[in-house]
Amino acid sequence: MEQYKYKVPYYVHNNKPILYLNVLKGTNYVDVAFIQGVLLEEKYPQLKNDNNRKQVRSLQVKSLEDFNEPQFVLLLKDAAIFLDNSRRAWVI
Predict the structure, then answer these.
(1) Dihedral pair phi/psi, residue 6, rounded to 5°
(2) pLDDT at residue 91 in the model
(3) Bigger pLDDT: 85 or 21?
(4) What pLDDT score does 88 carry?
(5) In the chain, what are the helix, strand and coil shares in percent, each to the nearest 5?
(6) Cβ–Cβ under 8 Å, residues 34 and 47
(7) Could you read off the pLDDT of 12-69 as tens digits, one per residue?
(8) Separation CA 83–CA 47 (nearest Å)
(9) Where are the domains of the chain?
(10) From edge to edge, which strands make up the β-sheet containing 30-34?
(11) CA gap 23, 79 in Å, rounded
């Protein structure tokens, strides 16, 4: 389900935010940011933490040609599993 917070689209799973999309000023990519990405970065080393964020890790998509859809689907499924097992009350 999609919701907007701070003029940014957030996607939720079981009423908890799982990721958001953002274009940061001065960049040439879409930041696909996983809210609890820190839990996924060991399995998915392509997740970046360029802004020194505590929990959020992101994929930086510069073009559709660079977007690896099968890998993204696996990442999204793993993020949903972590979110389902999380005890944090990150409900929007």
Answers:
(1) 55, 35
(2) 44
(3) 21
(4) 63
(5) 25, 30, 45
(6) yes
(7) 998 888 999 998 888 899 999 998 898 898 999 999 887 788 889 999 999 999 899 9
(8) 17
(9) 2-85
(10) 2-5, 8-13, 16-22, 30-34, 57-61
(11) 21
Q: Are 57 and 34 in contact (CB under 8 A)?
A: yes
- Give me the residues paired with residue 22 across strands: 31
pTM for the model stands at 0.83
Cβ burial, residue 62 (10 Å; 0-12/13-18/19+): exposed
Closest C-alpha to 92, from 5, 15, 18? 15
CB-based burial label for 75 (10 Å; 0-12, 13-18, 19+) = buried
Query: Are the C-beta atoms of residues 79 and 92 closer than 8 Å to each other?
Result: no
